[in-house]
Amino acid sequence: MTCRFLLAIAACTALSSAACTKDAPEEVESETVVTVTAMPAQVGNITAVVRATGIVTPAPGAELIVIAPEAARIVDMPKAEGDVVRRGDLLVRFEIPAMTAEASKQRADIARAQARLENAQAARTRARDLFDRGVAARKEVEDAVREVADAEADLAAAQAGAAAADTVAARSVVHASFDGIVARRSHNPGDLVEATASDAVLRIVDPRRLEVTAQVPIGDAPRVRLGAPARIADAPADVTPPSLRVAAHPGAVQPGTTTVPVRLAFRMPPAYPVGAPVSLEIDAESHRNVVLVPASAVVHEGPDTAVFVVANNKAQRRTVTTGVENSQFTHVSSGIKGGEMVITSGQNGLPDGADVSIAQPGAREGARDVGAEGGGQKSDATGK
Fold first, then answer.
1. Average pLDDT of 242-259?
2. From CA 356, how far away is CA 314, in angstroms rounded?
3. Is the residue at 236 inside a domain?
């Protein structure tokens, strides 16, 4: 029993020794080279952009909304929705019974006033003749003169009333005041309509005179200046974005609102229909001779903003301070110098100090090279 126990201990000791003397596994260090794209930071000019949304609307004087002058019935309306309208074309003819009756009444008042004036003038002539012959008293002549004056005043009042009635009657026939198209037709001949804006009959617009009414955040309103250029940002990729300019913005806003309405005029007649929603980019303040990096190079990590730079085939993370930006470039005011190679893609999740290789060195992504300055490229990064 004792011998077998000792043999077992010896066997275990031998196994333990063999295990302790076994070679440890070799540690292998492996490094991965990350392929990135990069381009030099540039020195140039950049124009900030204010982004807003808006609606295409007719410019002042380029819209005609036809409303009945009084409660009326539509007799004639030859133009359909979408039809072209020329200046002077008949748009609507209304039938207004009360207006017709008023015109007849005014004509009768004129006839009565004219008859009274003729009688007063004859009586005045007769009174003066009798006075000259010593038959009539002076008071009779004065009364006759006064009657003529009253009759002339009545005639003038009747004529003024008739002119007013004619003016109102003329509103029963509406003609186009400019060339345009019928944007909306809300009624048909035979319909009874009210003299309210909510019961408009026709809407005529001039498609050559359109503008955009944009809603600009109040905080950005001071950055928008009259005459500043702007573009429609959501235009199709194969279409040149229509250009605009800031035409006007109000000096006051309604309490409790967060946006300011800004009017922008098209430089050329657009193909957009009235009422179309659009997204806008309005040029704001400009900065000259500043360091610019592609917008894709900027990485936001919590409260920090960083850019990765390639130096000696390694990625260096730089905390930067940024300024204005547009759709292509960002102004970096500190942390980067002109000419340094900044990583534009492949930097997400990249550790500081990682080995990198540049797939497309020196690519200029959308910037216009106009010369060198401060070791970097100088460009006009307007984002237009």
1. 87
2. 5
3. yes
My answer on whether 329 and 374 are in the same domain is yes
Which domain range does residue 246 map to?
Answer: 52-58+214-285
Residue 18 in domain: no
291-327 pLDDT, tens digit per residue, is 999 999 999 888 889 999 999 999 999 999 998 887 7
Structural domain total, the chain: 4
- Mean pLDDT rounded to a whole number for the chain: 82
Query: Does any domain span residue 374?
Result: yes
Same domain assignment for residues 83 and 118: no
Q: Is the pLDDT of residue 375 over 90?
A: no
